[in-house]
Amino acid sequence: MKLFLAGIQREGDMPASPEMIAVKEFLESQIFAFDGVTGIDIGMRDEESLDPEDLAIRIFVQDASEISPEINGLIAQFPVPSIILQRRFEPIATLPDTEPHRPVIGGTSIQAARLANMVAAGTLGAIGQTTATPFPLTVGLSNHHVLAFDSNRSFGQEMIQPEPGVLGRWPNDVIGRLVNWAYPELVFSGLADAAICTIEIDSLAEILELGAITGRASESRGMLVRKRGRTTGLTFGIVTTDSTSASTRGTYMVRCERFPAVNNPFSNQPTVWRQLTNQFQIKADFPQTIFFSDKGDSGSAVLDSDNRAVGLLHGSAYVENDGSVGPATFAIATPIDVVEQQLGITLTATV
């Protein structure tokens, strides 16, 4: 199976049919009015056999045992493959990491200094450069919910690497300052959970255990990917979402309780959930990887087997059957081209 998947290229993929895309777009305009719906995409129908040509519209819900009859009614109108999967998506939060890295390098821990010993530590995914400033600035890439996740954040706040250990902060731990972010803080829908800070000390444009980013690639179903995060280290995964166009990528719901509730335009009700569109899902490549990510891996850069940047990891997807939740088998990421456009950066320039 791995040999088969490794040879898959975007141009060789059997794309979703126009009928399937049209149905997905229609359902996407309707299903988020119902409580308990957590996402929709077009992807592999059977994530165990991992046949990239067997596609279905995939609707994700918090509890598959309590599906609204209206949802079943909507799906039943259309003669295209569709399935309902129990899965919820959450930002990947915090676990301890106290390893300093000098020069600063991707795949290591990072935290906002004002949140030291509190919350929101994550991964410094990669080192890049700005493209929308008068002259290029060296920057570190992570998630909004790591660097700028609450209403008290502001431009210029100090970022530290590593996060504090059991004895407190490390000497000379400030590596830069918050300069930009992308997230639907005060609106219902957005394209990314991403943020950057300046890197003001010596840095290396590489990712720990992976090396330098060699270019940029679009994710495709069946693509073998990997990431290096501060909690689970180097892990391997397989893209399961059809991403031949923005219309077939995923739309997923995540909780955002640190900003005011906003109006859900589908139900016309206030909500603390936010909708992230144009995303993709990754499944752990078992048996070499049991869990693709865990708490603290937020902000990891997702690379393909040629070390090309593919996406920015920001969330885990959990399946709850008995009320317990462990490390996530699935993860969600934003395509790297979207991240670069939203933040005005490039990860492929020489730093």
UniProtKB/TrEMBL annotation:
Gene3D superfamilies: Trypsin-like serine proteases (2.40.10.10). It comes from the Bacteria. InterPro entries: Peptidase_S1_PA (IPR009003), Peptidase_S1_PA_chymotrypsin (IPR043504). This is Uncharacterized protein.
